[in-house]
Amino acid sequence: MKRNLAWKVVRPFNVITPKLFTSCVSNHAQATYIVNEWAYPPVEGHPFLFVFRTRNDARTFRNTRLVAYNFRIFRCEVDGVIGDENWMSVLGYSRTAWPQGTMVAKSVKLLHPE
After folding, report:
1. How confident is the model over 49-86, as pLDDT tens digits?
2. Structural Rg of the chain based on CA atoms
């Protein structure tokens, strides 16, 4: 079975716990990630998690917006992905509002850091 792969930018919770969090959300919509476990959107009505198509897209996002923080990039498996050509119009967003290579997925499993 072919796996759908992508890249995810996350931030650590702290040095003690293995939990990782969504890079740019800190409210009730923040998703929690544990390596090799499936993560799902935490908020009803916002049914997707954001990932990047390529490692370079994830690095560009991290390096231009999150350079002052300890953010990490993980290779991930994704399910229910909608590519960047379709998802913005499906959700009613402008194409120019998102970083290059942004995709959305219904679930994400972090596999390993870059």
Report:
1. 889 999 999 999 888 876 656 788 999 999 988 765 55
2. 13
Which residues 6+ apart lie within 8 Å of 49 measured at CB?
8, 22, 31, 39, 40, 41, 104, 105, 106, 107, 108
Contact 19, 32 (CB under 8 A): yes
Q: For residue 32, give Cα distances in angstroms to 36, 38, 86.
A: 12, 10, 26
Per the structure block, which two tokens stand in for 109?
Answer: 């499993």
Q: Which of 84, 113, 79, 80 minimizes the C-alpha distance to 101?
A: 84
pLDDT tens-place string over residues 23-49: 666 666 678 889 999 999 887 766 788
Model pTM greater than 0.85?
Answer: no
